[in-house]
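Hi support team,

I've been running sequence recovery on a batch of backbones for a student project. Most finish fine, but this one hangs at about 90% for roughly twenty minutes before it completes. I'm not sure whether the input is malformed or the queue is just slow. I've pasted the structure tokens below so you can try to reproduce it. Let me know if you need the job ID as well.

Thanks,
M.K.
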């Protein structure tokens, strides 16, 4: 039996790739987004330097940016970081700042954690130029108006994929939009795997295919969930056609 083929719309971390290579599938990675890091907004950072504040990251890119430019925030003891996944936490350990990890790698869990720990200090959300989740809105429902600090930019990469796959993994609405803008369409019977509700909503809008939504926002958890669903689907018995005589 031929192995299931999987298209992954981003470059994976080394740990996720190692795990995936051990699975009974074949896959290719192709990012549709190029990341460009922003220079620090010195004027804004001076206004919060050495002041108590909660710093929030929901992506590895934002975590890397914070580690690189941590010195602009001033005293480590004045700031604490809130993050979504163990991968982000591991990156942020280099900052030597106090880190809070959400109980689950989901935006609702992270928003609740931030609200529980907030005692009036400003919340600074480090994010890209594209909104990939609804954290800002969820914090607002808790009475917290976060300051959004853009620390990286998503630049589209156009590429026509001259191959059909059994399943497609997408990590953001932007990746789906750039995939489609390049003239790509998945085969009608292919499964679409989406990370988070926003990505799933975009997939439902542009593809007629079945869309599966991962309950976890963390990369490896999403890939594990997707591979499990893909293999189960591929192993389902093909229903026999009724023959009417």
């Amino acid at each position: 039996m031929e192995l299931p083929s999987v298209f992954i719309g981003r470059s994976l971390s080394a740990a996720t790739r190692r795990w995936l290579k051990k699975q009974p599938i074949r896959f290719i990675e192709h990012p549709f987004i190029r990341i460009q890091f922003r220079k620090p907004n010195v004027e804004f950072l001076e206004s919060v330097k050495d002041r108590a504040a909660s710093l929030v990251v929901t992506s590895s890119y934002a975590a890397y940016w914070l580690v690189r430019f941590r010195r602009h925030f001033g005293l480590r003891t004045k700031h604490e970081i809130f993050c979504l996944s163990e991968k982000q936490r591991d990156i942020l350990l280099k900052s030597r700042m106090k880190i809070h990890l959400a109980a689950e790698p989901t935006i609702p869990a992270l928003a609740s954690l931030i609200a529980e720990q907030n005692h009036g200090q400003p919340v600074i959300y480090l994010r890209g130029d594209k909104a990939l989740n609804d954290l800002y809105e969820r914090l607002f429902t808790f009475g917290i108006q976060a300051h959004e600090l853009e620390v990286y930019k998503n630049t589209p990469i156009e590429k026509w994929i001259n191959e059909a796959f059994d399943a497609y993994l997408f990590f953001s609405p932007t990746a789906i939009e750039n995939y489609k803008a390049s003239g790509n369409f998945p085969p009608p019977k292919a499964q679409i795997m989406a990370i988070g509700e926003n990505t799933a909503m975009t997939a439902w809008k542009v593809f007629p295919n079945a869309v599966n939504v991962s309950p976890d926002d963390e990369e490896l958890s999403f890939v594990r969930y997707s591979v499990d669903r893909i293999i189960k689907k591929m192993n389902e018995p093909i229903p026999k056609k009724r023959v009417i005589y």
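--
Follow-up from support: It reproduced on our side and the slowdown came from queue contention, not your input. The mean pLDDT is 89. No action needed from you.
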